[in-house]
Amino acid sequence: QVQLVESGGGLVQAGGSLRLSCAASGIIVRINTIAWYRQAPGKQREFVAAINSGGSINYADSVKGRFTISRDNAKNTVYLQMNSLKPEDTAVYYCNVLTDWGQGTQVTVSS
After folding, report:
1. Alpha-carbon torsion, ordered 81, 87, 88, 89, to 10 deg
2. How much is the pLDDT for 35?
3. What's the pLDDT score for residue 45?
């Protein structure tokens, strides 16, 4: 049974930083593609970043240069470092692998 648990969200001022964590169980992050998505109020869920088994990384254009995805194989955890946050980054952030999703963590960026 796959379980993804996100943490690290919160309230931050514009220009600030947060690091989100996605702790996985039931799967091995090192051999899977793990992605972060986000969903703002009234909007569709959108792709943010992903890291695959070979270490290749992709980012949405809106976060390139500000967000960094990484993984700790020993902890079976994937991270999303978010810098230079903007109010438009406000959303619930979800971790995803295949068809499994975490419960999400709220990120709120105040102007």
Report:
1. 20
2. 98
3. 98
Structure tokens at 59: 């980012």
Query: In residues, how long is the chain?
Result: 111
**pLDDT at residue 43, as a whole number:** 97
DSSP the chain: --EEEEE--EEEETT--EEEEEEEESS-GGGS-EEEEEE-TTS--EEEEEE-TT--EEE-TTTTTTEEEEEETTTTEEEEEE-S--GGG-EEEEEEETTEE---EEEEEE-
36 and 80 Cβ atoms separated by less than 8 Å: yes
Average pLDDT over residues 73-91: 98
Residue with tokens 């619930």: 92
* β-sheet bridge partners, residue 59: 49
Query: Which residues 6+ apart lie within 8 Å of 75 measured at CB?
Result: 23
Q: Give dist(CA 90, CA 54) in Å, integer.
A: 30
Cα-to-chain-centroid distance, residue 28: 17
